[in-house]
Amino acid sequence: MTQYIATFHTHLAALKTHRSLQKAGIEARMAPVPRKISSSCGTCVFYRAQEPCMDQIDPDVEAVYTMEGETVHTIKEFD
Question: Which of the listed CATH numbers 2.40.128, 3.30.420, 3.30.70, 3.40.50 matches domain 2-77?
Fold first, then answer.
């Protein structure tokens, strides 16, 4: 499984995504955004899955990243 980080423009979008992922049976947790990544609202969702699960992510997403140890890779940035 891959560790993903989704950042958002609003705290509400992070909360909706967290709930959606959990409802789909995906392990997820809300947390402050790591210092290596910036975010408009400062809240992100960490989750583990086989794929990015973009259909579970709120449309107000800022970006989705993978995290391997301390290394962060951008998967997709949104406008």
Answer: 3.30.70
With beta carbons less than 8 A apart as the criterion, state whether 40 and 51 touch.
no
Average pLDDT, the chain: 92
- Reported pTM: 0.92
Q: What does the chain look like in DSSP terms, one character per residue?
A: -EEEEEEESSHHHHHHHHHHHHHTT--EEEEEPPTTS--SSSEEEEEEESS--GGGS-TTEEEEEEEETTEEEEEEE--
